[in-house]
What we know:
The chain is mainly α and 227 residues long.
Amino acid sequence: MRRTSMKLAVAVIAAGLGLAVSACGTVKLGAAAITGSNRITSATLTDEVGNLNAAYKTDTAKGIKPQRPVGQETQQVLSWLVLFPVYDKLAEQHGIKVTQADIERAHNTYANQASASHLTLAEYLSAGAALPPNLVEEFSRAAAIASALQTQIDGGTTPSTAAGQAAVSAKFSRYQCIAAKDLGVKVNPQFGQFDYSGFVVVPAPPTLAAAPSPKASPSPVQTTPPC
């Protein structure tokens, strides 16, 4: 069997997932998260986590090792479910209209990366990015939006210096933050909280947990949007 170790190079959307959500406010009963007028139900989240776990089982049988932290599948999948409407909001705010050809182009870009590792795109994204295989089309649409927005920012020419690239990345991240903030995204604390420092949904801390020792303390979770 082949064992594949991968670092998924989703330059602008899977580096921390590139979204911003708030754990503040009231989340309606039965909702895992709310993004504007869209309600991500607990049932939908449960189904998609099941899809990811089924993919993991298939991947593992083929010798493909999942790369994301074990035991955080709920937060990983919820991050993607929140990401997609955030990117739709980004497209709306910046006048981006992606065509089916744009989506297929993004799909083929990552399919080629997967093929270079002797993987299907579904295997590549499930093992490398904790994406349920049935959400590949939504991923490709988000990637197409991200590509169009990056072109708006850098004029179609990737900066040649590290400082220039950092500036583009910072502006992109700020736009993501503004889009999610404008959506008024809320995550049900039952399923986690959003960490703006890494742009991911992370497990919520136990309410009655004892204070950890300073040495064992994790990096602080940033729950307030910086934009």
